Amino acid sequence: MKNWQANFYESILDTKLQKYIADFSKLIEQFETNTHSKETTKWQKQLAKLPKVEEIELTINEIVSLQPKHSIEHLDENEHRKTKAVLKNFMPWRKGPYNFFSVEIDTEWRSNIKWERVLPHLPSLKNKRVLDVGCGSGYHLFRMHQSGAKQVIGIDPTTLFFYQFMCFKQYLSKHNLHFLPIGIEHMPETHCFDCVFSMGVLYHRPDPIKFLKELKAQLVPNGHLILETLVVDGDSTTVLVPTDRYAKMRNVWFIPSVDALTLWLQRVGFKSIECVDIDVTDINEQRATEWMQTQSLIDFLDPNDSSKTIEGYPAPKRAIFIANI
Ligand SMILES: C[S@@+](CC[C@H](N)C(=O)[O-])C[C@H]1O[C@@H](n2cnc3c(N)ncnc32)[C@H](O)[C@@H]1O
To answer: How far apart (Å, rounded) are the C-alpha atoms in residues 129 and 154?
Structure first.
């Protein structure tokens, strides 16, 4: 068993999640042995090339930063160059920013900006068990950890994002921070989390009502859902279903209005539903960088009218909802 798995199982012993160990181990085994087995070997080799360091300092603010604790272990110029080259093999880096042993990973998204929008509206995370569904590279997991959560677990089925997180996690066995490479639809219904976050995922799900039920099934009674998603203007009957791509993204199914999503949440059984923030995404938050060199937001918008996507739909506008059960 790999270290990260042992570290996760150990962290849930004597907690309410313990009874799901068999479910988790089956799901992780599927990830390791089935579709991703070739990739697993490839990524393991890359991870092994990252620096060997005795003790680590994790600093979390706008930039999530990892440094050797003792200055004697700081990378020299040659090690820095090698480390940067290894990290480049994990491109595209979409969610961040990170500083990895002084290598600055300037990701496509300045995910700190989303966190700054979410943070003022959050219930206290102190001593809470938190789940982040669709956590990407795990940037927000660190921010939840910084807010005092006793345990933070992210789930995401994208192999690359799992291994981006592992670049950090292999140094962080003492931190109660975990990433499981699974989709929400495969999670057992744990009812174990005080807070469930899901940011930027709802519109990728072909059955959004089922998705909301799956999120609800992870919450303890009175637990909080923090849901962030694309929205369009309109009333409770307005939902955009793109004919094909939306802002060049495949896999965009339903973009509801704030009122429509409020209704969906009500129908699924959430209470105290509040839309706490609405924001139009700009090119300060999402842009191509050295670490994500293909197209980004600026290429997804109509060059003559930035209020529209290249396909003629309303440009990306995102809302944050807080609700409880
Ligand atoms: C737009 S990204 C959002 C990442 C991050 N939460 C954020 O807000 O910056 C959407 C993420 O959802 C993940 N995802 C897609 N299908 C999923 C599923 N069925 N269960 C969990 N995550 C999923 C993708 O792999 C991707 O990392």
So the answer is: 11
Instruction: List the domains of the chain with CATH numbers.
Output: 3-324 (3.40.50.150)
Closest by Cα among 20, 2, 4 to 12: 20
Is the pLDDT assigned to residue 37 strictly greater than 80? no
Q: Is 257 helix (H, G, I), strand (E, B) or coil?
A: strand
* Contact of 322 with 121, CB cutoff 8 Å: yes
User: Tokens 């409020």 identify what position?
Assistant: 262
Confidence of residue 273 (pLDDT cuts 50, 70, 90): very high
From first CA to last CA, the distance across the chain in angstroms is 36
The one-letter amino acid code at 228 reads: E
Return d(Cα 177, Cα 120) in angstroms, integer: 22
User: What are residue 240's DSSP bridge partners?
Assistant: 255
CA 62 – CA 53 distance, rounded (Å): 24
Ligand 1 midpoint to CA 199 (Å): 7
Kindly tell me if the per-residue pLDDT of 277 is higher than 70: yes
Both structure tokens of 265: 């949440």
pLDDT tens, position by position, 215-236:
999 999 999 999 999 999 999 9
Write out residues with Cβ below 6 Å of ligand 1: 95, 109, 111, 114, 133-136, 155-158, 161, 183-185, 199-201, 204
Both tokens assigned to 104: 């600055």
> Ligand 1 centre and the CA of 115: distance in Å?
15
Residue type, 57: E
DSSP 64-85: EEEEESSGGGS--HHHHHHHHH
In the chain the beta strands, taken as DSSP E runs, fall at 56-60, 64-68, 95-96, 98-100, 103-105, 109-110, 129-133, 151-155, 177-180, 193-199, 219-230, 239-240, 255-256, 271-280, 301-302, 305-309, 317-324
